[in-house]
Design goal:
Protein name: SDR family oxidoreductase
Domain NAD(P)-binding: 18-122
Largest sheet: 7 strands, parallel
InterPro entries: ComplexI_NDUFA9_subunit, DUF2867, NAD(P)-bd_dom, NAD(P)-bd_dom_sf
Low-confidence stretches: 1-8, 330-336, 339-344
Radius of gyration: 23 Å
Number of helices: 14
Distance between the termini: 35 Å
Number of strands: 19
Pfam families: DUF2867, NAD_binding_10
Strand content: 15-25%
Mean pLDDT: 86
Organism: Streptomyces lancefieldiae
Length: 499
């Protein structure tokens, strides 16, 4: 945690929405370090339980679109942080954002909240709002709703956020590292003003104690104004890569280039598109008034190269606190897991395997917790890769999200095209599929002891089909289960024995 030595004298009670996301998951420990009390509003509170700060913060269930749960979460709150958006939930996401922001502002006023703090996007000057991308237009509208509400608001507007695990950083990183020669869209010549995630957090924390008469938006950015082409070349220098050859062409629209980004990087096209659309227009700061309330420190805001070097070091040392994929995929299923023996949800297909293991349960669990990412899935790599490519092709997240940490998982982590739904340390890892499927799917892995005291590995794949297509899908892939799931079980037990 990094508050740059700044501690607020007043202890405030802060509500944080979006605590399972990239910024929210990093803001909570910063607020705690600054001496504040923190309450998190989350749709699935259990996803926050494994965070290092979970025991120091209160978590309540609810949704920003539900007035009753927001009202309950606002009780006794001084400062309310709004760090959520409905991007990716469908064509109606702007209306969802609008309704959620109005609900949040209304309930904050009713509860006597002193201040709302919102992190939005930096918008270009001189461009009519109707000409902006839906992503930026919605961000701007949410900020305006808070500024027009009775509760004083601080609206922070940032462009590209550079930090280990951020979508912007990962897009920049993978494009530069994987493509020594790039044919790029024309937006690589657009100027933008990136900011390090540490400075974003510093401004968010400092916003909590702004005077009551401050009710406005602030542009926040680092000291460097760069084109995306310049950022890629600077990244190559900082990372010790050869100079990249960049050839921009005018025919790659934001839609086409988002698919290009989706092919080359772990960031799916659905998320790459708003990022690339935001680069169509120049977005640079037109004021630095935030310094009057959150004073600059020596060397801060961080220069672009320093923010890059810090992010790279975090990645290489496997100290990434949150990632762009920390938040659940919009629209991902949240239905209850079919439980044994009674479940009234209709058809349920299972593939279950049990194998003895010539190793301790601890050794087996280490292998189980290490699945995915660079370690792979212990069976038929080509089949897993093809399934990931197919998922990308239909707009899913694909197989390349990887892991936040190479050895340890926590509830809520993304794991390739799965999400960690449950962990019982040393015993159970349950994953929920976030790939595009005609139904709901889970994969469970157990480290057990049999009746004779020997270690046993148990693996269970479950699929709840949706309609006729779901049934057809299961039966079309079931012939491959012996190879994929059977090979996975055998290879996991062998890996545990070898260890």
């Amino acid at each position: 945690m990094d508050t740059d030595g700044q501690r607020d004298t007043e202890r405030l009670h802060c509500l944080v929405t979006g605590a399972s996301g990239y910024i929210g998951g990093r803001l909570v420990p910063e607020l705690l370090e600054a001496g504040h009390r923190v309450r998190c509003l989350a749709r699935s509170p259990g996803k926050l339980r494994d965070h290092p700060w979970a025991q120091d913060a209160e978590t309540v269930g609810g949704d920003v679109t539900d007035a009753d749960s927001v009202a309950e979460a606002m009780r006794g709150i001084d400062v309310a942080y709004y760090l959520v958006h409905a991007l990716g939930t469908g064509s109606g996401f702007e209306d969802t954002d609008r309704r959620a922001a109005r609900t949040f502002a209304m309930q904050a006023h009713a509860a006597g909240v002193r201040r709302i703090v919102y992190l939005g996007g930096l918008t270009p000057s001189g461009i009519p709002e109707g000409d902006l991308s839906p992503h930026l237009r919605s961000r701007a509208e949410v900020g305006r709703i808070f500024l027009e509400a009775p509760v004083p608001a601080t609206v922070l507007r940032a462009a590209v956020v550079i930090g280990s695990g951020s979508a912007s950083f990962e897009m920049l990183r993978y494009l530069t590292e994987r493509l020594p020669v790039m044919i790029t869209p024309s937006w690589v010549h657009t100027r933008t003003q990136p900011i390090g995630v540490r400075d974003v957090l510093r401004y968010l924390v400092g916003s909590a104690t702004m005077p009551a008469d401050v009710d406005r938006a602030f542009d926040i950015g680092g000291p460097d104004v760069l084109t995306y082409q310049g950022m890629m070349r600077r990244y190559a220098t900082v990372a010790g890569l050869r100079r990249r050859v960049i050839v921009p062409v005018p025919v790659l629209t934001p839609r086409l280039s988002s698919h290009w980004v989706g092919l080359v990087t772990p960031v799916p096209a659905s998320l790459a598109r708003p990022l690339t659309e935001s680069l169509r227009h120049e977005v640079v700061c037109h004021e630095h008034d935030i310094a009057a309330h959150v004073p600059d420190l020596p060397g801060r805001p961080l220069p672009f190269d320093d923010a890059l070097a810090l992010a790279l070091r975090r990645v290489r040392e496997a100290q990434v606190a949150t990632r762009w994929s920390s938040a659940a995929v919009p629209g991902a299923p949240s239905d209850p897991l079919p439980t044994d023996p009674d479940w009234a949800g209709g058809s349920l297909y299972q593939d279950e395997r049990r194998l003895p293991v010539d190793a301790s349960r601890e050794a087996l669990w280490k292998v189980i917790e290490g699945v995915g990412g660079d370690n792979g899935w212990y069976s038929f790599p080509l089949a897993w890769a093809v399934r990931g490519w197919l998922d990308r092709f239909v707009g899913g997240v694909g197989l390349r999200r990887g892991r936040r940490d190479a050895a340890h998982l926590r509830v809520g982590d993304s794991l390739d095209f799965w999400r960690v739904e449950e962990i019982e340390r040393g015993h159970l890892l349950r994953l929920r599929a976030e790939m595009r499927l005609p139904g709901l799917a889970w994969l469970e892995m157990y480290a057990e002891t049999d009746t004779e005291g020997r270690t046993r590995y148990r693996q269970r794949a479950l699929f709840h089909p949706r309609g006729l297509l779901g049934h057809a899908y299961w039966w079309s892939v079931s012939p491959f289960h012996a190879v994929v799931f059977g090979g996975m079980a055998r290879n996991i037990t062998r890996a545990a024995a070898k260890s």
